[in-house]
Backbone:
DNA sequence: CATTTAAGATGACATTTGTCATAAGAAGAA
DNA sequence: TTCTTCTTATGACAAATGTCATCTTAAATG
């Protein structure tokens, strides 16, 4: 019996998938979590064989969770299940070492099969992702990402500089460089583009 | 046997819900649609008893579809199934005369029950919606909304003014007023807040 | 070891953004 | 028929944003 944990904040989908998987004779959903924090506790308590993780969840994202698990030496298989085909997410997941990455836009029937394959040591990725993976590298340095994230959260340049203990001019320079790199007209377009590509 | 159509663009959820509902002895999912346009054709061909409609779908939204159906005198029951607790959507759905409005954040078990009740002439609404429906009115005028939408798409004030055949100063005034109304620090925060509340 | 890149800074400058006072015309409500 | 709200506009001003050139130091790469 494959023991599965599902972490997904949309209750309707989580419930439906659990019921569905429980109909499979060799699969049992032993736990459901609403967010990454809840999931981490349940994983410690129950050590499931496979974790199905959504990415965008409150408190702690599925990617954060996966990275933590592997760092801590977890042997649990991890399948990311998300709406987002963003290259950034996919790359980060691969880098973390996940065993599968499926899109919510795929057929639900394949899910049980994916779980079995992953348990069998194989990897499972949505084909459209592998195909689209023409390395859209993040052109931003880590500092630039930090700055852009703060600006995207609504802070002014001056506030960002106070936050990061930088001079106001430096932040302005960073923003200028970011806008230039992303070929944007202004910070708003830069934010939109960076989010689309999964760069922040 | 209650004959059900599901229109939902996220294949995983659509598939899972269909399978789930088909396990119910008195319910049969007779059709699945990827978008509003596909749904409308299937409804004409098959006249289902109940339609489960997502709101945000490509080509034609679930709300557009529901309104069209009732205008055309359809007797099919309509249940909106969506992620969004936005007051605007809810109000529009009520106005159109839908028979149910459920959130994807609710339990999947209740779905079958909701379908039965609606067939029985009752209405079904997610309690949090009715409760939260303390009229979070959109403080923006329609012109202000237009301006903010364009700014959110990355245009500068000047570009917006060219777009709407207004003077640059007028657009600046609008933005100033918008920022003031939404109690934001700058346009970026205004955009975030307005999107959160579903005001643009 | 030389070179490149990232991080950080300054200064000068032009442009954009945000605020405020003020005003006129149109439409709708009391 | 007033009164209010919405749309549109100007002008003036302060603050924020974006661009560019230039410079230092540290770390990484060849």
Residues:
């Amino acid at each position: 019996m494959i023991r599965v944990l599902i972490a997904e904040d949309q209750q309707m989908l989580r419930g439906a998938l659990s019921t569905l998987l429980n109909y499979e004779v060799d699969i049992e959903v032993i736990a459901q979590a609403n967010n990454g924090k809840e999931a981490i506790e349940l994983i410690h308590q129950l050590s499931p064989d496979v974790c199905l993780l959504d990415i965008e969840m409150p408190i702690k994202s599925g990617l954060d969770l996966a990275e933590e698990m592997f760092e801590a030496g977890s042997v649990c298989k991890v399948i990311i299940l998300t709406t987002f085909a963003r290259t950034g997410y996919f790359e980060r997941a691969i880098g973390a070492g996940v065993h599968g990455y499926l899109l919510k836009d795929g057929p639900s029937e394949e899910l049980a099969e994916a779980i079995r394959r992953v348990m069998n040591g194989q990897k499972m990725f949505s084909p459209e992702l592998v195909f689209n993976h023409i390395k859209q590298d993040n052109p931003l340095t880590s500092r630039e990402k930090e700055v852009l994230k703060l600006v995207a959260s609504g802070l002014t340049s001056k506030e960002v500089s106070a936050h990061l203990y930088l001079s106001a001019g430096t932040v302005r320079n960073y923003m200028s460089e970011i806008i230039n790199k992303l070929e944007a007209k202004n910070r708003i377009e830069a934010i939109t583009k960076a989010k689309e590509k999964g760069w922040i």
Summary: Chain A has a mean pLDDT of 85. The beta strands of chain A are 2-7, 27-33, 50-53, 77-82, 100-103, 124-125. Residues 50 and 61 of chain A are 17 Å apart (CA to CA).
